[in-house]
Write a structure and sequence with these properties.
The protein is α/β, with parallel strands linked by helices. It is built from 12 helices and 16 strands. The strands form 3 sheets. Strands 3, 5, 6, 7, 8, 15 and 16 form a 7-stranded mixed β-sheet that branches. Strands 11-10-9-12-13-14 form a 6-stranded parallel β-sheet, sandwiched between helices. It has a 3-stranded antiparallel β-sheet with strand order 2-1-4, with no helix packed on it. Helix 3 crosses helix 4 and helix 3 packs across helix 10.
């Protein structure tokens, strides 16, 4: 094994896009970590946000690429139930390095992941698809698992997005929601939301979604909203669709703080208070920025999420839609992240082939 590899990330604080090639040491797994030779990864908005703001307080150089699928190359001394050579999917710790390589799919990238975020990859799930799941799946899982009651009416705006299309599938196919409603702004997004299992999909550019939902629910509203759009306008609109005593669940820091740089007034809490509805924030970052939150219960919950990601993918219940697959180069990854940042361009997930031979099983 080489002692260093050429990753993709940033060398200066808050440098933003485009990213750079970064030479870093191959990491050594801590006692409870797994070292993974990376075959594939995928893109998430978190990565361009870290490049822009470095809000986890890392000292550059930083390698990005937190979604991982690959082969176990080493084990921490306390790791059980896993062996070198196992094919796995994982999410790297968000305050450590990721696994993108700047070698165009010719391999040579390594990352460590906590054992509780590392699971065996089933043979029927490709490295590419396994790598498209972790962060987006866990985000949807943390919002919906235990919150969606059988037969519930659920609204997931943005059902063509990376988190959204998985959340629609999860609610409709794995958690037995009675009615799943979604929305999109482009024909392709609307189609993907419908293909993911949404019973009704509205065009937010054209339809009065609050009025449509009121009609569908006979004026009652939905039991649960899961809003992963990071959009203040969406937040205010979706809050108005929740029934009295229902739940409005948001991914990330939530209303009034979508930029991280400035807090603005948001009407969401007043809207929810008027309905006696719950406001719930789901934020995977918090587990890593506030280590006290990552207790045994949280670790067990996230491990359960990773297990179910593979189980439900195997059963065809929650399957990532990969709209684009790119080679692992600075240019291709930067272009993909830019499309995510600008919004509207990416459908489902963008996958990254880090090691072509490994990903192909050769």
């Amino acid at each position: 094994m080489n002692q260093t590899f050429l990753g993709v990330g940033y060398t200066r604080d808050r440098a933003g896009l485009p990213l750079e090639a970064v030479r870093v040491p191959v990491p050594r797994p801590a006692a409870d970590e797994v070292l993974i030779r990376v075959a594939a990864s995928s893109l998430n908005p978190l990565e361009y946000k870290l490049a822009d703001l470095n809000f986890m307080g890392r000292t550059p150089p930083v390698v990005l690429g937190f979604d991982l699928a690959g082969v176990v190359a080493g084990l921490g001394r306390d790791v059980e139930g896993m062996a070198v050579g196992d094919e796995v999917a994982a999410m790297a710790g968000l305050n450590g390095d990721g696994g993108w390589a700047a070698t165009g799919g010719d391999g040579g990238s390594y990352a460590v992941a906590p054992r509780f975020l590392t699971v065996r990859k089933p043979p029927s799930v490709s490295f590419r698809d396994a790598a498209a799941l972790p962060m987006c799946f866990l985000s949807a899982f943390a919002g919906l698992y235990g919150a969606v009651q059988a037969g519930a009416t659920v609204y997931v705006p943005g059902g063509g997005g990376g988190v959204g299309h998985l959340a629609v599938q999860m609610a409709a196919r794995a958690l037995d929601a009675g009615t799943v409603i979604s929305s999109g702004g482009r024909p392709q997004s609307i189609t993907l939301a419908r293909q993911s299992g949404a019973h009704f999909v509205f065009d937010y550019r054209r339809d009065d979604i609050a009025a449509e939902i009121a009609e569908l629910t006979h004026g009652r509203g939905v039991d649960l909203v899961f809003d992963a759009t990071y959009n203040e306008q969406s937040f205010a609109a979706t809050a108005k669709t929740v029934r009295r005593g229902g739940s409005w669940i948001v991914l990330g820091v939530g209303p009034g703080r979508t930029t991280r740089l400035a807090e603005t007034h948001s009407p969401v809490d007043a809207i929810l208070a008027g309905r006696g509805a719950r406001h719930v924030n789901v934020n995977l970052l918090r587990y890593f920025s506030e280590p006290a939150m990552l207790d045994g219960e949280a670790r067990g919950f996230l491990q359960r999420g990773m297990d179910l990601a593979m189980e439900w993918a195997t059963k065809g219940l929650v399957v990532p839609h990969v709209s684009q697959t790119v080679d692992s180069t600075v240019e291709a990854i930067s272009a993909g992240l830019r499309s995510l940042k600008e919004g509207g361009g990416a459908l489902g997930k963008i996958a990254v082939i880090v090691d072509r031979d490994l990903a192909a099983g050769t």
